[in-house]
Write a structure and sequence with these properties.
With about 240 residues, this protein is of the alpha/beta class. The relative contact order is 0.21. Strands 3-4-5-8-6 form a five-stranded mixed β-barrel. Strands 1-9 form a two-stranded antiparallel sheet. The chain is elongated. It starts with a strand and ends in a 6-residue tail after the last strand. It has four helices and nine strands.
Length: about 240
């Protein structure tokens, strides 16, 4: 039986293998970091429900990026100045998120308020949006970052629209501030659930769960191991008759 022996690899084979293993490991660790970030985000939202409310101004002064405090603020909704985040999915139903501009008392920076999700009807038509409360009101909700913008296909469609509420496929506070002609808060308020409301207000982030990222990380680490095994198999061969 011919014994196996190590075949000296070329420099190209070594570099290709090392580069592949390094890339696969980098992607694996990146997915693990993504899993940690998603877990921290879910924990932050879970902890919010059990915390006492704080004023919006206190939250603006003290809130770190990873914290999502439960806030209260008095002011008024700006009637007729709303935005609809279209093509959203909740519990398997298609619909929209309804945002309205809110002006805190005292003339501080306006903030977008997410009033909640409205599902389409059985004919896939958009639901009628209830009017906002008028006059001075106090609201409570989660002070959270605006939803991610994702791919911006087609550019900013807000300036071309003349009817309110305006439709959009992403929420960008800077673009909305430009549309309003005044700056607004770069965070939003996710209103607390209210009995009898037509809006669905379940604020668990719609994200890939940490477990999925762990699965992706395992795949990348498996690719790294496979690259190493292939390299060894290709260069640990049976000696050919007459070879030295």
């Amino acid at each position: 039986m011919n014994a196996r022996r190590w075949i000296r690899p070329t420099w190209f084979a070594v570099l290709l293998t090392v580069a592949g293993i390094a890339a696969f490991c980098f992607l694996g660790f990146w997915q693990l970091q993504r899993a940690d970030d998603k877990a921290a985000l879910l924990d932050a939202f879970s902890a919010t429900a059990a915390t006492a409310t704080m004023s919006l101004e206190d939250a603006r002064r003290t809130t770190a990026a990873a914290i999502h405090p439960h806030v209260r603020v008095r002011g008024r909704f700006v009637s007729g100045r709303g935005y609809v985040l279209d093509d959203q999915i909740r519990d398997g139903r298609q619909g929209m998120m309804v945002y309205t501009v809110f002006e805190p008392a005292g003339g501080t920076l306006p903030v977008l308020v997410n009033r909640g999700f409205l599902a389409r009807d059985r004919q896939a038509q958009r639901a009628s949006i209830p009017p906002v409360e008028t006059g001075d009101v106090e609201i409570e909700g989660v002070y959270a970052p605006a939803p991610g913008t994702g791919l911006r296909m087609g550019g900013n469609a807000l300036p071309d629209q003349r009817e309110w509420p305006k439709l959009t496929i992403y929420i960008d506070p800077k673009e909305i501030g430009a549309d309003l002609g005044r700056p607004i808060d770069d965070r939003v308020i996710l209103l607390d659930a209210q009995a009898g409301s037509v809006f669905m207000r379940e604020w668990t982030p719609q994200i890939l769960p940490p477990e999925r990222h762990h699965g992706y990380a395992l795949q990348w680490f498996t690719f790294a191991l496979a690259a190493l095994v292939i390299f060894i198999v290709l260069h640990w061969r049976r000696a050919q008759p007459g070879s030295r």
